Amino acid sequence: MDVYEAVMSRRAVRGFTDQPVPMEVLERVLSAAAWSPSGSNLQPWHVYVLTGRPLAELKKRAGERLAAGDPWDEREYEMYPPALKSPYHERRSAFGKERYGALGIAREDWEARQRAAAENWDCFGAPAALFCYIDRDMGPPQWADVGMYLQTVMLLLRAEGLHSCPQMAWSVYRKTVAEVLSPPDGLILFCGMSIGFEDPTVRHARTGRAPLDETVTFVEGSAPPPHMARPGRLPAAVPVGARCRPRRRPVEHHAEADPRHAAAVDPPVRGDGGRAQWIPGLYPRGPASAPTKVALLSRRDHLTS
Ligand SMILES: Cc1cc2nc3c(=O)[nH]c(=O)nc-3n(C[C@H](O)[C@H](O)[C@H](O)COP(=O)(O)O)c2cc1C
């Protein structure tokens, strides 16, 4: 699987089979992801990986909490600005429509939406998950580093034939997560990530993207070929030499009604069905400083609380 295929075939998968994810695959992915960039090479991510009994215990505790109607933990960071301005508000609405529409849930059916969202705390059935923390005193650049790291993890998972779903939802159950993981003081839980093999029977939408000229301004250089102006296409070589005028224009449309937000097409997958062969020795086992920061809680491990 090449990088374009990994990027285009990654999506937030919200239905997994119970097929176990081998621990050596997770170790391989996280060893390679340790090579993600970060400002001054701080590597500000702290990752816990759960499978087997510890993950089952976490899901059980979260399920009990949900059933008891426990309120969410107070937030340690705001997931979104309180008043989302345009075009973000419209993009968020369009996402909700896509996500819940695919499940046949009407916009006004709040309870059904809540039920679907509650699947977050079962990791959508995934047999593996990771939880990513960051030190409380880190700033926006380090949070961005963590985002790059997580995307690297998700792309490497694709190369292993696996899928994932990043989940900020766990941040409002952070105390339950902490009961199981006992992270050191001074860390904030940014998000969880469900990991596993996709359950193809779960209905889903392919979430769309804003047109390229809404988010990218080519000031000078090559114009994108027409097939790149829409999301969902694998780009070919970009012709060089052409100059183009600035392409940014005021946002004036309503995203939900905008046909340019049409869902991206599923990308072509080569004959290996998306499961690339791992080439042993291709990636070193990770920079010397990184492995200590990844805790693997396997079936063999005891619960920490
Ligand atoms: C940092 C982050 C947190 C997310 N949190 C959740 C979550 O809690 N639950 C969920 O179902 N999806 C979550 N998502 C998935 C997004 O909804 C999804 O990435 C977005 O709608 C684009 O869709 P796609 O990833 O399928 O292309 C999260 C994504 C990111 C990057």
What is this structure's SSE topology?
Blueprint (H helix, E strand, L loop, with lengths): L2 H7 L13 H11 L12 E6 H16 L20 H15 L7 H9 L9 E8 L4 H20 L3 E5 L6 H8 L5 E10 L15 H4 L78 E4 L8
Parallel strand pairs: 1-5
Antiparallel strand pairs: 1-2, 2-4, 3-4
Helix pairs in contact: 1-6, 2-6, 3-7
The protein binds flavin mononucleotide (FMN).
The top-level CATH class of the largest domain is: Alpha Beta
Radius of gyration (CA) equals 20 Å
Which hetero ligands occur in this complex?
Answer: flavin mononucleotide
Low-confidence stretches: 232-293, 298-305
Estimated helix fraction: 25-40%
Q: How widely separated are the two ends?
A: 40 Å
**Proportion of beta-strand residues:** 5-15%
Count of spatially separate domains: 2
- Based on DSSP secondary structure assignment, what is the total number of beta strands? 5
Strand adjacency order, main sheet: 3-4-2-1-5
CATH superfamily of the largest domain: NADH Oxidase
> What CATH architecture of the largest domain do you see?
3-Layer(aba) Sandwich
The helix tally amounts to: 8
Structural class: alpha+beta
Q: Mean pLDDT across all residues, rounded?
A: 81
Give the ordered list of helices and strands. Answer: HHEHHHEHEHEHE
Sketch the major β-sheet.
5 strands, mixed
Shape: globular
CATH topology of the largest domain: NADH Oxidase
